[in-house]
Fold this sequence. Notes:
alpha+beta, 199 residues, disordered N terminus, 5 strands
Amino acid sequence: MSTQTVDPNRIQRPGGAAPTGQGSGVGAPAATRATLSEASRKAFDREIAKYPPEGKASAVIACLAILQKEHGYITQASEELVAEALGMPPIAVHEVTTFYNMFNQVPVGRVKLNVCTNLPCQLRGGQHALEHLCGSLGIAEGGTSADGAFTVQKSECLGACADAPVLLVNDLQMVSFMSDARLDELVSSLRAQSGANPA
């Protein structure tokens, strides 16, 4: 197993701006071994205790969510820490991290906007909504605004095809029927809430 840990200078803290100079790609590099705070270690233990010893791998999503809440995103070293805690191969943890949109593999902005671009949403303006957001924020799909306020990503089906275009804000709140005007209003409202000024 690697002896890498998370470099605290490259971690996006919850509610904070993404570190500057971050490239894109799968997983952010980690120079040292990932660590857990005492509170997160206790949260891990609580989640693992919900399952019989032979089924503790079932806590993988909960443990990844705990790490993301603490560090802002999931690194390879974080995946290895979860794998060790659950007795799983690191690749099995990585498969979970990469399958779900809710897990960030690189630092993201304070507000993450996931726009559904699956076929039903495509037919009802999903791609246009994605392009409008990216254009108004001056970023490419998957990118983060210069002020660290917004990250815009494509999303898999959000289960609200009749309400398209739809998007998910910070993996928690779904917004529907997002015309250009509604998208602009949403960005202004979120910018005011986060205290970020336009770049």
